């Protein structure tokens, strides 16, 4: 009998779209590779890409565009033997996953760009598809894709990195695989002609590189493209965390060995060793480019006002008014999902109340290997401060199960190490007696949270 899905991770997203069965598995944007190969190196490049300017702190400060590239097909459901050829293709490769990575010393900010984002103003006289950012790589190569990203974000890009599916799988294997929680209903993607056979029942799974690439390509269970982007952020947070371990250092030859073998880049990794001692100090933040639909099309227009709130200048989210002034941060509701396997949630709740967070809800979930994280939809500044306080990555997205005025915290099994001090903290406050614990069936974080009983 299939075990039930851990309810805390059963994030239900709206309007799922069926996957395009015959298309190639698209490589998700592997930002952890950028943090090692491009993100932690001094960049030099031919053409328009320049070398990262030296800084007084001796750390890099630059922006890198990371793209996940489709496999190319020469016949129906038959991948080409030469994945770099540009003629005789059944369908050109798109770059459906794009991430702009800004490195400011040890602070790393990642902005996901949706594949349907329009480059510049929409022109009704032109075809819709040729105006989308995901087609620029094939139309003009990585330089054209880089220019498109600069147009969309208003940010100068110092270098690019385009990664292929097989490279992504090798890196995930080198980092020990990926722990995931499959949503209720499970996932099944079978295409024998293309060599795809992914069948995962609901619940916790440990995936190898090939399985992980397929899993991160699927939209079923995660809703639309925004849901998949948010899901990928969670996976990348987990994998990037492993770079700080001995296993992460052992994986560096695989990561660096991708150049010319699944990686197309103008980033110079020559100075990577200089920043290796700082891996443990990296502070990761993820956000999604805010967009609005172009009426009557499938294209998306950039919402620049919202972009300033989630991306900001210099990697810091600004206040709602764009002034950078801090709101009353403890006014947000904090929703804690405790999947640590060590009951750290109640102790964390007490610590947060001591800091002034008056509304903290805790829900227990089965132990999970997913990375501990702070996540939010709109309350970016509050989430950023909370993430800095706890030393956790901050994820902003469009489909996370929090509403305005709410910030979520996921405690995975890794919290027993990263937040070990909580285990010594008495979770019982010296205030009135605790209410009855919620029933087991109520221990889930729904997609649209309603007021929850407080765990004291």
TrEMBL record:
Biased composition (Pro residues): 427-438
Residue span, Cell envelope-related transcriptional attenuator domain: 94-243
Span of domain LytR/CpsA/Psr regulator C-terminal: 331-414
Coiled-coil residues: none
Region span, Disordered: 422-456
InterPro entries: LytR/CpsA/Psr_C, LytR/CpsA/Psr_CW_biosynth, LytR_CpsA_psr
Family classification: Belongs to the LytR/CpsA/Psr (LCP) family.
PANTHER family found in the cross-reference section: POLYISOPRENYL-TEICHOIC ACID--PEPTIDOGLYCAN TEICHOIC ACID TRANSFERASE TAGU
Protein name: LCP family protein required for cell wall assembly
Lineage: Bacteria, Thermotogati, Deinococcota, Deinococci, Deinococcales
């Amino acid at each position: 009998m299939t075990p039930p899905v851990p309810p805390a991770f059963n994030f239900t997203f709206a309007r799922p779209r069926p996957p395009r069965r015959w298309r190639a598995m698209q490589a998700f944007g592997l930002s952890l590779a950028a943090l090692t190969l491009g993100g932690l190196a001094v960049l030099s490049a031919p053409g328009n890409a320049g070398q990262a300017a030296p800084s007084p702190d001796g750390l890099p400060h630059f922006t890198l565009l990371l793209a996940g590239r489709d496999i190319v097909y020469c016949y129906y459901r038959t991948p080409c033997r030469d994945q770099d050829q540009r003629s005789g293709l059944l369908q050109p490769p798109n770059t459906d996953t794009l991430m702009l990575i800004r490195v400011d010393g040890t602070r790393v900010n990642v902005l996901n760009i949706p594949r349907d984002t329009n480059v510049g103003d929409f022109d009704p006289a032109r075809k819709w598809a040729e105006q989308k950012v995901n087609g620029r790589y094939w139309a003009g190569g990585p330089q054209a894709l880089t220019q498109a990203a600069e147009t969309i974000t208003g940010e100068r890009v110092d270098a690019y990195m385009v990664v292929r599916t097989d490279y992504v799988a090798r890196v995930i294997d080198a980092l020990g695989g990926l722990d995931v929680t499959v949503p209720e209903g499970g996932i099944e993607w079978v295409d024998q002609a293309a060599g795809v056979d992914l069948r995962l029942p609901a619940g916790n799974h440990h995936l190898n590189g090939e399985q992980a690439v397929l899993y991160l390509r699927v939209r079923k269970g995660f809703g639309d493209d925004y849901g998949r982007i948010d899901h990928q952020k969670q996976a990348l947070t987990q994998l990037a965390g492993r770079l700080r371990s001995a296993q992460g250092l052992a994986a560096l030859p695989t990561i660096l060995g991708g150049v010319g073998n699944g990686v197309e880049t103008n980033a110079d990794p020559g100075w990577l060793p200089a920043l290796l001692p700082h891996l443990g100090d990296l502070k990761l933040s993820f956000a999604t480019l805010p967009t609005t639909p172009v009426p009557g099309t499938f294209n998306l227009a950039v919402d620049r006002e919202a972009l300033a709130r989630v991306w900001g200048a210099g990697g810091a989210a600004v206040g709602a008014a764009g002034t950078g002034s801090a709101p009353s941060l403890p006014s947000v509701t904090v929703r804690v999902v405790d999947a640590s396997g060590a009951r750290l949630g109640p102790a964390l709740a007490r610590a947060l109340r001591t800091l002034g967070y008056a509304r903290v809800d805790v829900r227990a979930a089965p132990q999970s290997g997913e990375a501990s994280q702070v996540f939010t939809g709109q309350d970016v500044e509050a989430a950023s401060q909370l993430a800095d306080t706890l030393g956790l990555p901050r994820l902003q997205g469009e489909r996370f199960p929090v509403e305005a005025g709410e910030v979520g915290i996921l405690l995975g099994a890794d919290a027993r190490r990263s937040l070990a001090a909580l285990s010594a903290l008495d979770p019982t406050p010296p205030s009135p007696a605790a209410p009855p614990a919620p029933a087991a069936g109520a221990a889930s974080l729904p997609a649209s949270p309603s007021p929850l009983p407080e765990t004291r």
